[in-house]
């Protein structure tokens, strides 16, 4: 039986690991280039635009804080979509996608947390408050770490993926909490002024670098995500071949 | 009434343990799985019971009226390596719980009769944890008698049983078959069943490539 | 299903000591807090409801992680998974039994704890009511963690970590409903109704997710 | 209001984390590729290629 | 004996991610507290040490009750009982492994938690010190309960009644030593020394009692 | 060198299970316990291993130098119904732990050799929980090889083993006996041991008055 026939009978022929690897090899250089380009443009814009009359220079923190905060949530959303793929279609690539996204999501959440803190000290006069937005992001961070730990604790990868998938989906309730916490509990944190119904309510002077940086960070996320997925596929391939080698040795010996 | 499996394949971890397993058992028939340690007997039984997802293939049960059921577990008794009894509760409490949980059927016997049938009448008031290994196994077997299910899936049922226990077990299985039941058992010891089919498991099948390769 | 409920209750009395452990844990917590806040009775009574709620939350975690692991270890879980009765129902009943064994005693003991914390009658009543309504939600959320723990050889802390964040909304509304009952301007009903809604929500989501996890971890 | 420390602190930290994650992902990929090459060198090959070789 | 220590540590890592878990668990517990008592920083910093100590107790309780039960269930306990090496030593090493795996990460993480709870430097230092010194006592006391749980399979209730009240003195002296370090008039040393004494006392009594209970297991 | 039991009696719960059991095993000898389920085989083995207090009587081991030891457990391997292995750890880690915990001896074999000896070389890197029932039992048996102990106390050692496993087991026991070891085994199946003594357990002895009578 050849590989392709299995792939076609079992998975939609769009996405079997081998085909994914070929695709990744083709598009990764382009994505990396695009990411670098966006970052150059974004960084240039963010340091050349005017400071805010109210917030002064610190407004530049926004160009990092806001995109990474969005990506923190998007990372989890991607994991949730993958989780559905795992549970409903039992698709191995979905397993890989969820597993690869967790550390990336954690990293972006960490950046959002730390830049938020660094912004909070001059703006609110404190590094940290237990307000709803901040805490829910903190919880998101904990959940990323917990899911990474869970994945490591189970060594059968497909079982680990299915178990994590259930938790990922249950944990998704946190995402709307993050998004709407500022509206539900009136707190220190800014409420949405870009991603909201009725269009952005923010000066285009700030909107431009913000959007470019957002695109740059998003491109970075996807580049890394595809790379991490590729690594994971390779890792499993190595493990499978090692097992087979052990078994063959066992049989011959 | 029959139980049929077509072209089953199952995976443990990342490896295919077996593939292309098919069988068909009519009412009153028995299939005995044999094979070396680690050859996949328990795996196959768990797939049939619906406790493990098969990689390919299907299992189905067709009852006397011709209705086909895919979830064979629902009409089966499964006796695994572990006895599914709580050592803190008494035997009677354990059996009574399973009888009520699995659903009473009028064709089934009472708890005392079941204990009698496995040769241990009169000690159902003891906590399950106080029994010897063989006594525990016998009561685990009594669980199959307290509610009627047409299919019995047994994993090394006679482990820890003494000679009289083996005999008793064979008789109970034969009685179940006479009533039209179907029996699927994995074993290393001869079970003493009349006219049972045998399926030899061979272990790891290497024909198909894995997902990651 | 009553059979399962009865069995689990019986087991918790025979084996785990569920009923008392929660209350005792709770008394320990209550014994320690005054050292933190000092002998300031006013302050104590102010944070009282919060402490009772946090205690209830933590007490619910004790033993919850083994809800399904014990069933797996002796093979009972296999039979439950094979059963026709929807698995969700089985999970629900097990949650109920666990709640009756560990959280209900806490609810019943909460007036006593309230007295220790120098809380007013209204506050005590409100705490008891919100606990009664809200604590099942914690158990339902915990059940998801417990189901996941089946895949892990030893659940324990990891499960609590995954589950605790999800209980935060319950805690928030439970506590704020209690405070609303005591402090005049804020209305009691809105947070209380949200609490009820949360419990109902998790009563659906929790067992469903737990059943899903159990189905996917069996081997 | 300049708050240079906070601004550059943010950019610095973000750069640190993104670069670290990128490097880690890249290094992980290299390690995996080396492992695969080592396995290939030791004669263990993917079953599909083995089958095609008629082994 | 290092073999046993290493094995137990390895088990705790395999099962749930190891050192990271303790910290995460703790962070989660602490993150929950402000939702209960509200974001009042002054109050948080005041109850901070008590919360950290309660967290340590909870972390020790989760999983501790299965310290020997897991060994019994797979038959390892039999082999350990047959061994020449004094059983007390085996128990001691198992306690040590459990402490390293669950309490030590908390001790190490406590400064971070202190920051979250807005505690002063002195308070953070004192909490860390008292935790380091006092938390083993909780583990030792818990070990007795765990051993009794094995000896009396139906002694669940007894275990909680036995263990939790015994931990109260440890908790009280731990917390009060911490407050003594922060608040001027009260001296730090007396409660701290009592804490040390308690730990030493339970380090002797705990394993000995646990070993005695294990030797007398009913089967 | 010999292992001797004199006039042993043991109690389970409130009842005397057996009494007046005596035997003496010289170096190289084997004793096989047989008897019905619940007749007290496991109980006797646990008494000999020191895991259960006898009611009356004594067990002692005298080594080649003539020193007598009362705590026979210390120089014995005990293989009970359960395997004493952690399913989370790999087989190699499990065996390595027991080797170090039980104390290395120069006469023992290495872990790989032991795995080879039970017919499962090459899979010691797998977690123990991933193995089939028979494979687990085989590795539990490998535990007896990695450190040398003169006395082996085995409770239904061949449960779950396939035919080749039974054979392998008999060979390993014979090798142990040839080296001068003593073997005490409870079983329901013929173990294939040459010239083994047999002790039939009869279960509940009611001859002596209980404590309360
Ligand atoms: C550690 C602290 C902080 C955290 C965890 C945090 C988290 C977040 C998150 C998750 C978002 C995305 C929300 C959405 O898309 O609706 C966001 C957006 C934002 N944050 Fe923060 N933040 C923190 C501190 C701050 C501070 C101190 C400021 C400024 C005073 C700030 C200003 C903003 C702004 C302006 C937005 C954009 C809102 C929008 O236009 O949608 N944040 N933050
Ligand atoms: N923990 C216990 N408490 C009370 N009674 C017990 C306990 N364990 C066993 N018994 C009783 O002691 C008797 C002997 O048990 P034992 O396990 O020694 O039997 P056995 O000969 O090994 O049987 P099997 O062949 O079934 O393993 C049994 O009747 C059992 O009911
Ligand atoms: N949970 C698991 N994860 C990964 N592999 C497993 C798991 N359980 C079993 N296996 C592997 O699957 C194979 C088949 O196991 P199975 O239990 O079906 O064998 P068996 O025929 O029942 O053997 P036995 O006669 O020893 O009971 C074994 O080689 C085993 O190593
Ligand atoms: Mg099997
Ligand atoms: Mg026995």
From TrEMBL, chain A:
Residues 12-189 form the Cytochrome c assembly protein domain. GO terms for molecular function: heme binding; heme transmembrane transporter activity. One of its GO terms (biological process) is cytochrome complex assembly. One of its GO terms (cellular component) is plasma membrane. Keywords: Cell inner membrane, Cell membrane, Cytochrome c-type biogenesis, Membrane, Transmembrane, Transmembrane helix, Transport. The chain crosses the membrane at residues 20-47, 67-89, 101-120, 132-151, 163-186, 206-227. InterPro entries: Cyt_c_assembly, Cyt_c_biogenesis_CcmC, Cyt_c_biogenesis_CcsA/CcmC. Its main location: membrane. The keyword Membrane applies. It holds the Pfam family Cytochrom_C_asm. It is found in: Cell inner membrane; Membrane. It is a multi-pass membrane protein. Required for the export of heme to the periplasm for the biogenesis of c-type cytochromes. Belongs to the CcmC/CycZ/HelC family. PANTHER family: CYTOCHROME B_B6 PROTEIN-RELATED, HEME EXPORTER PROTEIN C. This is Heme exporter protein C. It comes from Rhizobium mesoamericanum STM3625. The gene is ccmC.
Automatic annotation (TrEMBL), chains B, F:
The keyword Translocase applies. Keywords: ATP-binding, Cytochrome c-type biogenesis, Membrane, Nucleotide-binding, Translocase, Transport. One of its GO terms (molecular function) is ATP binding. GO terms for biological process: cytochrome complex assembly. Residues 3-212 form the ABC transporter domain. InterPro entries: AAA+_ATPase (IPR003593), ABC_transporter-like_ATP-bd (IPR003439), ABC_transporter-like_CS (IPR017871), ABC_transptr_haem_export_CcmA (IPR005895), P-loop_NTPase (IPR027417). It comes from the Bacteria. SMART domains: AAA. Belongs to the ABC transporter superfamily. This is Heme exporter subunit ATP-binding component of ABC superfamily. It comes from Rhizobium mesoamericanum STM3625. The lineage of its organism: Bacteria, Pseudomonadati, Pseudomonadota, Alphaproteobacteria, Hyphomicrobiales.
TrEMBL record, chains C, E:
Its main location: membrane. One of its GO terms (biological process) is cytochrome c biosynthetic process. This is Heme exporter protein B. One of its GO terms (molecular function) is heme transmembrane transporter activity. The keyword Acetylation does not apply. PANTHER family: CYTOCHROME C BIOGENESIS B-RELATED, HEME EXPORTER PROTEIN B. InterPro entries: Cyt_c_biogenesis_CcmB, Cyt_c_CcmB_bac. Required for the export of heme to the periplasm for the biogenesis of c-type cytochromes. It is found in: Cell inner membrane. Belongs to the CcmB/CycW/HelB family. Keywords: Cell inner membrane, Cell membrane, Cytochrome c-type biogenesis, Membrane, Transmembrane, Transmembrane helix, Transport. The chain crosses the membrane at residues 12-37, 43-64, 85-108, 128-150, 157-182, 188-214. The lineage of its organism: Bacteria, Pseudomonadati, Pseudomonadota, Alphaproteobacteria, Hyphomicrobiales. The gene is ccmB. It comes from the Bacteria. GO terms for cellular component: plasma membrane. It is a multi-pass membrane protein. It comes from Rhizobium mesoamericanum STM3625.
UniProtKB/TrEMBL annotation, chain D:
It holds the Pfam family CcmD. The chain crosses the membrane at residues 6-27. GO terms for cellular component: plasma membrane. Keywords: Cell inner membrane, Cell membrane, Cytochrome c-type biogenesis, Membrane, Transmembrane, Transmembrane helix, Transport. Its main location: membrane. One of its GO terms (biological process) is cytochrome complex assembly. It is found in: Cell inner membrane. It is a single-pass membrane protein. Belongs to the CcmD/CycX/HelD family. Required for the export of heme to the periplasm for the biogenesis of c-type cytochromes. This is Heme exporter protein D. The gene is cycX.
């Amino acid at each position: 039986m050849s590989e392709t026939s299995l792939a076609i009978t079992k998975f939609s022929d769009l996405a079997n690991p081998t085909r994914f690897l070929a695709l990744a090899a083709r598009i990764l250089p382009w994505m990396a280039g695009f990411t670098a380009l966006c970052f150059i443009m974004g960084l240039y814009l963010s340091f050349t635009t005017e400071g805010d009359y109210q917030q002064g220079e610190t407004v530049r923190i926004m160009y990092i804080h806001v995109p990474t905060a969005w990506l923190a949530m998007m990372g989890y959303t991607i994991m949730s979509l993958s989780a559905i793929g795992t549970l409903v279609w039992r698709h191995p690539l979905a397993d890989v996608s969820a597993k690869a996204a967790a550390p990336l999501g954690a990293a972006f959440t960490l950046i959002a947390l730390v830049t938020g803190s660094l912004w909070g000290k001059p703006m609110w006069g404190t590094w940290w408050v237990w307000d709803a937005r901040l805490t829910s992001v903190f919880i998101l961070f904990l959940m990323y770490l917990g899911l990474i730990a869970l994945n490591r604790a189970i060594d059968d990868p497909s079982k680990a993926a299915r178990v994590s998938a259930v938790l990922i989906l249950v944990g998704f309730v946190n995402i709307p909490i993050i998004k709407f916490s500022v509206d539900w509990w009136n707190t220190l944190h800014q409420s949405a002024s870009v991603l909201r119904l009725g269009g952005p309510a923010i000066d285009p002077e700030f909107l431009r670098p913000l959007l470019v940086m957002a695109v740059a960070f998003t491109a970075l996320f996807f580049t890394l995500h595809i790379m991490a997925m590729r690594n994971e596929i390779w890792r499993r391939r190595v493990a499978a071949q090692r097992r087979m080698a052990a078994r063959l040795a066992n049989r011959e010996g | 009434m029959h139980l049929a499996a077509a072209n089953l394949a199952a995976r443990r971890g990342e490896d295919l343990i077996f593939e292309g397993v098919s069988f068909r058992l009519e009412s009153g028939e028995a299939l005995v799985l044999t094979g070396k340690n680690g050859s996949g007997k328990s795996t196959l039984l768990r797939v049939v019971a619906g406790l493990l997802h098969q990689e390919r293939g299907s299992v189905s049960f067709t009852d006397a009226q011709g209705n086909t059921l895919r979830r064979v577990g629902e009409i089966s008794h499964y006796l695994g390596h572990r006895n599914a009894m709580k050592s803190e509760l008494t035997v009677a409490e354990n059996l009574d719980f399973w009888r009520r949980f699995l659903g009473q059927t009028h064709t089934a016997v009472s708890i005392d009769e079941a204990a009698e049938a496995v040769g241990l009448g009169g000690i159902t008031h003891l906590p399950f944890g106080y029994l010897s290994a063989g006594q525990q196994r016998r009561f685990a077997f009594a669980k199959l008698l307290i509610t009627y299910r047409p299919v019995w899936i047994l994993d090394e049922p006679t482990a820890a049983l003494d000679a009289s226990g083996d005999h008793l077990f064979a008789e109970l299985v034969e009685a179940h078959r006479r009533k039209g039941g179907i029996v699927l058992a994995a074993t290393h010891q001869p079970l003493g069943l009349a006219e049972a089919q045998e399926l030899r498991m061979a272990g790891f099948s290497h024909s198909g490539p894995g997902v990651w390769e | 299903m009553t059979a399962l409920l009865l069995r689990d209750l019986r087991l918790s009395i025979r084996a785990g000591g569920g009923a008392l452990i929660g209350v005792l844990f709770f008394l320990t917590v209550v014994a320690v807090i005054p050292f933190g806040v000092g002998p300031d009775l006013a302050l104590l009574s102010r944070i009282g409801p919060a402490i009772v709620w946090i205690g209830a939350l933590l007490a619910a975690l004790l033993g919850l992680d083994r809800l399904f692991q014990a069933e797996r270890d002796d093979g009972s879980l296999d039979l439950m998974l094979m059963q026709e009765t929807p698995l969700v129902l089985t999970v629900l009943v097990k949650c109920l039994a666990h709640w009756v064994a560990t959280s209900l005693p806490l609810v019943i003991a909460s007036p006593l704890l309230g007295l220790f914390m120098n809380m007013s009658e209204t506050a005590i009543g409100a705490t008891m009511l919100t606990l009664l309504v809200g604590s099942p939600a914690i158990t339902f959320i915990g059940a998801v963690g417990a189901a996941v723990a089946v895949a892990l050889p030893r659940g324990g802390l990891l499960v609590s970590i995954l589950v605790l964040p999800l209980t935060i909304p319950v805690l928030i509304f439970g506590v704020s409903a209690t405070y609303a009952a005591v402090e005049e301007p804020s209305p009691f009903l809105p947070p209380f109704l949200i609490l009820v809604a949360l419990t109902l929500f998790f009563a659906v989501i929790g067992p469903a997710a737990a059943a899903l996890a159990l189905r996917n971890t069996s081997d | 209001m300049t708050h240079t420390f906070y601004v550059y602190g943010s950019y610095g930290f973000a750069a640190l984390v993104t670069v670290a994650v990128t490097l880690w992902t890249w290094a992980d990929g290299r390690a995996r590729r080396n492992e695969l090459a080592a396995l290939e060198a030791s004669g263990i090959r993917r079953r599909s290629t083995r089958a095609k070789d008629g082994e």
